[in-house]
Amino acid sequence: MLKRSVLLVLLLLTSCGHPNGVMTPVPLSASTTPTSKVAMLVATTREPSGDPATLFNGERSSKPHLTQITVSIPPKREPGTVQWPKRLPPDPATDFAVTNVQQIDTIAEGRKWFGQHVVGGHALVFIHGFNNTYEDSVFRLAQIVHDSKMQATPVLFTWPSRAAITAYQYDKESTNYSRTGLEQALRTLAADPDVKDITILAHSMGTWLAMESLRQMGIRDGHVNPKIRNVILASPDIDIQVFAKQFVEMGQPHPKFTIFVSQDDKALALSSFITGRVSRLGSINPAEEPYRSKLEKAGITAIDLTKVKSGDGLNHGKFAESPEIVQLIGQRLMTGQTLTDSKVTLGQGITAVVGGTVTNIGTVAATAVAVPATIIEQPLMQRGKPQPAGDTLGGDLKPQPLTQ
User: Fold this and answer.
1) DSSP letter (8 states) at residue 382
2) Whole-prediction pTM value?
3) How many other C-beta atoms are found inside a 10 Å radius of the C-beta of residue 134?
4) In this structure, what is the dihedral angle of CA atoms 337, 221, 214, 127, given to the nearest 10 degrees?
5) What share of the chain is helix, strand, coil (3-state, %, to 5)?
6) What is the number of other CB atoms lying within 10 angstroms of the CB of residue 105?
7) Residue 385 pLDDT more than 50?
8) How many other CB atoms sit within 10 Å of the CB of residue 166?
9) Which residues contact 78 (CB under 8 A, 6 or more apart)?
10) Which carries the bigger pLDDT value, residue 324 or residue 177?
11) Stretch (H or E) spanning 327
């Protein structure tokens, strides 16, 4: 039965093909159907491919590269989806299409671009997950930015993924390879006077990279840069014990942390199988002990998407494919707002567990979320003595000295 489940996940992971080579800019003419545009800054530790149709491949570069890219989004589409072209070149009237690509060679050029595209001084840094090409991550960020209606300047950090299901270990090592690259990118962004605050949105294996870079920054400076206000981890592919260590070792004060979890995430189930059946953070039930008490103590908000429906057969990309959830990211989580006031209008009866009481915090805003999700907003009130965490979150979330 287990082998059959693993084969099913592998089939799902390898069955979502689309044309490669979509990075060549498509000219827009006066007769072109009006489309929306998303302009982004892309930093990468990938090796240049030498082909303008792909720009970068899945191998590791000895130095980081910076590119500005504009993506055109067609007017008629279902929110939460990426309209990949069925043939090349893409048709901007029906497909996502790249309309501008320009390499950036200096920090000064990057800051000039940011100054021209600044939105209230807010920056979103997106870090993709396992099995993603360069173009996969560009189009996914464009979709998230467009559908969330966020007021922020988008920055993509894309690391060397070979985009192959058999390259899980290579991809994991590539995140380790890219830790300093992401840290430097975050430091450079934070040093820009046009940047007031930074939100990090990381997905799947990219959450490991985000946590490692923040931990590295915290070890160097004693804390994370104060401009990094919010960290959102979607389907985090991280060992629970390791996450606890990463969290405390990045120092105080912490950014505001939000995690999206789902107990029916098939990709994380496969990851758990590959890594010795170790539980992944993105698969926990945050309403159960000891997770609830530990998340409360750490001030982490956990949003359970298990009952949220999406078109993703793996249930691994719900955060981006559910229109309400992606708007939650762009309209509330990025601005540090709570999830328990009367202005929350998400899905059908989304509930919150606050102080041990289940409270309805939403009314019907759309029909895409067909079943309630459970949101645990921190801090929660303590209800009796918490159960021991044992080997789940590594005991107390306190730094431990190497020697006594």
Assistant:
1) P
2) 0.83
3) 25
4) 90
5) 30, 20, 45
6) 9
7) no
8) 10
9) none
10) 177
11) helix 323-331
